[in-house]
């Protein structure tokens, strides 16, 4: 692995820390970094922390080139040897220098005014404990005809409209989310029992943290002008990926709820039964309008989530 200096340049008291956790995404990482280099805010207002979670591709070389090309940026590269997205995110939290912690995926591309709009939001909204922005899909090919709107969140896509509002039934997605440091200090880091580990499609670490924050009465806002594009590669649209992701969702909810109590797990099972009813109702609605593939994919999704929810060990 190419050794990297700790950082290119140091700016005291940056307004935001942008944390990118990466694992074998060298295809998209250069564009992710380039979008951050093109931000409209002054360089001294932000830092970029790249957490490499044991990538086996050319990630170190990409970071070295970016560092050499943009010496004016406060950019730091570091490795996290403990495998898992939650470990990597927590490392970023520990290393960050600012009071606003922004997370963006290694295959997401921020709009030029992304950080400017987040900074303005947090400065003007003192009661905001956390926030999440709009995420547009960027399909490598095209959106498949089997993908209904309700499953777009599987693609890390979120769009709640053009007005700032509170998250209630939903919560921000990890490709575009931000926290005040004091929020993390109050409610804990990401649960390392949850989240993706290498190529395994687990999750729920974001859900776990946001549910704690919202349950405590804190406010989590949707910020529509904090926009990123998120790549949807063709591989992510394969049936095998869909199946494994759905199982991972169910399995992660099992781990999350059982970590709370047996009663919490029973409540998750009960909610899953209710979701089956909703899924069948929506399925019939799609079938009535001759959109058979969308309707059936909802049922397939529910089946594999349920399977994961009762699975003791994820292969």
Can you walk me through this structure?
This protein has 315 residues and is an alpha/beta fold. The protein is 40% helix and 19% strand. It has nine helices and nine strands. Strands 1, 2, 3, 4, 5, 6, 7, 8 and 9 form a nine-stranded mixed beta sheet that branches. Strand 1 (16-22), helix 1 and strand 2 form a beta-alpha-beta unit. Helix 1 runs parallel beside helix 2 (59-69), helix 7 (239-260) packs across helix 9 and helix 8 (262-288) packs antiparallel against helix 9. It starts with 15 loop residues before the first strand and ends in a 6-residue tail after the last helix. The mean pLDDT is 94.
Write a concise keyword list for the protein shown above:
globular, alpha/beta, single chain, 315 residues
Can you lay out the helices and strands and say which pair or pack?
Blueprint: E1 16-22, H1 29-37, E2 46-52, H2 59-69, E3 74-79, H3 85-95, E4 100-104, E5 108-110, H4 114-124, E6 128-139, E7 165-166, E8 176-180, H5 181-187, H6 205-215, E9 219-232, H7 239-260, H8 262-288, H9 292-309
Helix pairs in contact: 1-2, 7-8, 7-9, 8-9
Put the structure in a nutshell.
The chain is of the alpha/beta class and 315 residues long.
Q: Separation of termini? A: 30 Å
What kind of sheet is the major sheet?
9 strands, mixed
Number of helices: 9
Oligomeric status of the shown chains? single chain
Number of strands: 9
């Amino acid at each position: 692995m190419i050794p990297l200096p700790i950082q290119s340049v140091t700016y005291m008291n940056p307004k935001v820390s942008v944390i990118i956790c990466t694992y074998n995404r060298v295809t998209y990482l250069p564009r992710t970094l380039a979008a951050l280099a093109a931000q409209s805010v002054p360089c001294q207002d932000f830092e970029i922390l790249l957490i490499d979670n044991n990538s086996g591709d050319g990630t170190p070389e990409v970071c070295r080139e970016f560092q050499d090309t943009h010496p004016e940026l406060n950019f730091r590269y570091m490795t996290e040897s403990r495998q898992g997205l939650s470990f990597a995110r927590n490392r970023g939290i520990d290393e960050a220098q600012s009071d606003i912690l922004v997370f963006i995926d290694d295959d997401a591309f921020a709009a030029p005014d992304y950080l400017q709009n987040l900074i303005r939001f947090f400065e003007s909204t003192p009661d905001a404990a956390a926030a999440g922005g709009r995420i547009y899909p960027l399909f490598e090919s095209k959106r498949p005809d089997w993908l209904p709107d309700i499953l777009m969140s599987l693609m890390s896509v979120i769009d709640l409209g053009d007005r700032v509002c509170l998250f209630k039934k939903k919560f921000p997605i990890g490709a575009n989310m931000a926290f005040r440091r004091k929020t993390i200090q109050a409610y804990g880091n990401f649960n390392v029992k949850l989240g993706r580990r290498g190529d395994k499609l687990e999750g729920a670490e974001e859900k776990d943290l946001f549910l704690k924050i919202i349950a405590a009465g804190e406010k989590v806002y949707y910020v529509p002008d904090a926009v990123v594009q998120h790549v949807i590669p063709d591989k992510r649209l394969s049936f095998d990926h869909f199946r494994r992701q759905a199982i991972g969702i169910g399995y992660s909810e099992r781990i999350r709820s059982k970590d709370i109590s047996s009663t919490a797990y029973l409540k998750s099972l009960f909610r899953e039964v209710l979701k089956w009813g909703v899924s069948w109702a929506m399925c019939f609605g799609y079938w009535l309008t001759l959109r058979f593939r969308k309707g059936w994919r909802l049922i397939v999704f529910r089946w594999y989530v349920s399977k994961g929810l009762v699975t003791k060990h994820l292969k």
